[in-house]
Amino acid sequence: MDILAGVVCGLAMGTICLGVGIYILMSNRDMYDRLSKFLPQGFSPTVVMLGLVIGVPPVGVLLGAIAGLASRLVDDSFPNAGLGSPNFVFTVAILCLAALATLILLLIRKRLVWLGLLINIAFAGIFGWLLPLLANWR
Asked: Would the pTM count as exceeding 0.90?
């Protein structure tokens, strides 16, 4: 049940990341010019967008399944509840990971901070609270 909950949460997170990623790519006016400089000759930026649409949700599902398995392992080792979650240690670990990602984002890109914060808040909410709640829902 934990892995299935991870798959559901990973699909939700992959969908959010896909939406934000496409917004970032499409908000740049010269996206096609910049992207065509890095791509091989005859490789269209449309193929990159199609690859994102096809590739990001399955990657999210895979990462969600891994997170579900990690949730099961942590729950077996440290079965404590807290912070509104049935798995306190896993929730704290996810919150620390989200805080680290936010810090890295602040140091690297100042322009995309709000979109990065949106993804990090969604990550903390989906994997920190929703995943343990769905995993213990029987």
From this structure: no
